[in-house]
């Protein structure tokens, strides 16, 4: 005999399960469209410009001050133990492996996941997407796949730029506080970075890019309720993509740790 609360529990689970199912279907179609023509190359380059070039100033700004702040904070602890020469190693390990990819992804999520959701959501509520279908155009191929490809290309590049600018900020602190020579700082950065650190620093932004693009497009395509619905979709896209960035970061760290230990 079924428990009294079972129907209510099943009703509660219906919405999240159906939402996840729709997201998987959208993701599968978006990835499948990568290998099918037409590829809408112009839309891809347009989105690369909007997402990549448009995000470059804020990414450089955050990268610089991340390096400056980390340099100041680590300098106090390192000076206590006389290990100032390790500043380059600590900054490189922290920025490239963890902080740089996550910070850049959160910034791009706030700027572009919201933009993607609001743009596609506006098209949804004004019935432009229905018009695409009526004209024989696949909205997922036209709207989702170009944004997925563009974000997957530019986010790792933005992360590399932010990491380098952050290391420059760290060098400024090392030079101004400890008069550390450039050769000593950059040698420690280069020598102490392992191959796994570089791989992790590039795999993460690629995975984060997929999350940002697909989540933004998913909530944009599901927008209902006019302008208020667009606002809800925008907020939900930013919050959801930011949460999944941290979840994905943990599982990538865990997978790489297991892989390294098995070698």
Task: Describe the protein's architecture and organization.
- The structure is a single chain.
- With 263 residues, the protein is mainly alpha-helical.
- The chain has one domain.
- 87% of the residues lie in helices and 0% in strands.
- It is built from eight helices and no strands.
- The protein has helices at residues 6-33, 41-81, 87-125, 128-134, 139-178, 182-192, 195-221, 226-262.
- Helix 2 runs parallel beside helix 5 (139-178).
- The longest helix is centred in the first third of the chain and has 41 residues, at 41-81.
- It is elongated, with a radius of gyration of 22 Å.
- It starts with 5 loop residues before the first helix and ends with a helix.
Entry keywords:
263 residues, 8 helices, 87% helix
Shape label? elongated
Runs in which pLDDT lies below 50 for 5 or more consecutive residues are none
The tally of beta strands, per DSSP, is 0
Q: Which value, in Å, is the CA radius of gyration? A: 22 Å
Helix- and strand-based class? mainly alpha
> What summary fits the major beta sheet?
none
Number of domains: 1
Order of helices and strands: HHHHHHHH
Helix content: over 70%
Distance between the ends: 51 Å
| Count of runs of 4 or more consecutive helical residues | 8
Q: What's the pLDDT, averaged over the residues?
A: 86
Strand content: under 5%
């Amino acid at each position: 005999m079924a428990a009294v609360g079972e129907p209510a529990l099943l009703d509660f689970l219906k919405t999240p399960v159906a939402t996840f199912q729709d997201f998987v279907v959208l993701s599968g179609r978006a990835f499948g469209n990568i290998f099918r023509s037409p590829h809408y190359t112009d839309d891809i380059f347009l989105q690369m410009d909007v997402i990549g070039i448009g995000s470059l100033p804020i990414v450089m700004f955050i990268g610089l001050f991340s390096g400056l702040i980390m340099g100041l904070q680590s300098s106090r602890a390192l000076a206590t133990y006389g290990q100032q020469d390790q500043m380059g190693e600590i900054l490189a390990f922290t920025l490239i492996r963890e902080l740089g990819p996550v910070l850049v992804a959160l910034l791009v999520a706030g700027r572009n996941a919201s933009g993607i959701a609001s743009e596609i959501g506006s098209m949804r509520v004004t019935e432009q997407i229905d018009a695409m279908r009526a004209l024989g155009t696949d909205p997922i191929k036209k709207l989702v796949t170009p944004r997925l490809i563009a974000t997957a290309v530019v986010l790792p590049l933005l992360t590399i730029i932010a990491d380098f600018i952050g290391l420059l900020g760290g060098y400024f602190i090392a030079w101004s506080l400890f008069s550390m020579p450039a050769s000593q700082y950059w040698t420690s950065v280069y020598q102490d970075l392992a191959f796994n650190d570089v791989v992790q620093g590039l795999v993460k932004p690629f995975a984060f890019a997929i999350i940002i693009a697909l989540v933004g497009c998913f909530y944009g395509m599901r927008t209902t309720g006019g302008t208020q619905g667009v606002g809800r979709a925008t907020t939900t896209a930013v919050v959801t993509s930011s949460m999944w960035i941290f979840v994905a970061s943990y599982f990538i760290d865990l997978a790489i740790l297991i892989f390294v230990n098995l070698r």
